[in-house]
Request: fold
Amino acid sequence: MKILFITDGFKAGGRQRQLLEFLKGLKAYPEISYKLVMLSDCNEYPELDDLAIDICVLKRHIKKDPTIFFRLFKICRAYRPDIVHSCESMCTFYAIPVVKLLGIKLINNIIRNAGSRAGPWFRRWTFPRITFPFSDIIISNSQAGINFFNPPRHKTYCVYNGFDFKRMKNLKDPAIIRQELGIESQYVIGMVASFTALKDQSALIKAAHHILRQRNNVTFLFVGDGEKRTACESEVDPVFVDRILFAGRRDDVESIVSVLTVGVLSTPREGISNSIMEYMAGGKPVVVTRGGGTEELVVDGETGYVLDPGDIGGMAKSITSLLENQTVAHRMGEAGRLRLEKNFGLDVMVQRQLEVHRICMQDHDFDKSAPN
Reply:
């Protein structure tokens, strides 16, 4: 089987992380050859270079560059892949005429979240749906994403994100991480997420204010960058600037997770969050907001607490409860790690992805629902 992957680039994010994990997993299948096409030369994952993959960069001169069609056509005509696997909406639009002209199968792997069909989410709902009729297979990383976008069910499959537990080896000394970040408190509450409209760091900042007025042994740490970061930093009470820290984008997230007491993700919409998976892989209890695929990953009361979006009081109460009950926190963290190993490991994801690719090439079928 020959696969041509096409993505916009490898800027740090959940979508790119999962493509990277799949490419890593394919190294165990020498009978499968593959090539990667990127629409930018952005690569924030050094691991990609280590894989020694054949990469072709088709840099766009403008955002919607029509010349990409012709350049992609030439690559596909020369490489003759069995499948083009597209990871983003714009990539899929570029791929559709190419695969139709050359008779290549198209796997459309762009469903990565779930949300409301109102307001700004309406465009996020309609734009991908235009591509569904032209796709041979559609992949979502959550059942919630399938329910939200409602693609044709007969050709749609759920493949959960996979986590490579090798990432949790050879971590930095926690004492070094604490020193680098200026953390002196006993407990650390962390949120790893980009500062975008899809994430709600403000809710955790408000909850942090409530907790810090009661306790002086906790630091809140935000890891990530984005257009909302400056605004979020301005929300911090000056009294707490030494205990609500912003680390920016980091390449050592796994090591940072190792110093956390609790991992938090506050967001109105989500697919299967890589950040939550990182917390769980590190054996940390989580406090998250429901919506999208989060409840497919986190079991409320067993691996952490699942709250309604915007429930600041509930967030503060849940975090405090975990700080005051370390036995419960440890038990939840262990349960989360075991759940991740069983249902969201890298091998599970790679095998399921490959089975979908084989389905794309043949006429057999398999259970379209993701494992529980």
